[in-house]
Amino acid sequence: MRATREPSKLAGWLADAGPKATVGTFGEASQFGELVVLAVKGTAAEQAVDLAGPEALAGKTVIDATNPIADEPPVNGVLKFFTGPNESLLERLATDAHFVKAFSCAGPPVRVCVRDM
């Protein structure tokens, strides 16, 4: 199931996605899935969890694929990041969900290599 604020806007995607595909609201998708993938803009993660309904996420694994990138434009080619990770905020919103960070798209130049420390 794919979640969106306006399911009618995904009618074209749904028609092409195959017979087992479904579209619904964030709340419907969080109730539907045994496993939830949170793949929204980092600054929208809090609102997405709120729309999903923290109680519907209770006991479920939520794969957090968001990146803490600010909405501001890059300065000298460098993206601005939040001051802290989304996970701690999201865990406070949905205390009974199990958040796992995965699929980060932040490139190697901004990562820390443990063996070099």
UniProtKB/TrEMBL annotation:
UniProt-listed Pfam families: F420_oxidored
Domain of life: Bacteria
InterPro entries membership: NAD(P)-bd_dom_sf, P5C_Rdtase_cat_N
All residue ranges annotated as the Pyrroline-5-carboxylate reductase catalytic N-terminal domain in the record: 4-68
Protein name: Pyrroline-5-carboxylate reductase catalytic N-terminal domain-containing protein
Taxonomic source organism: Sorangium cellulosum
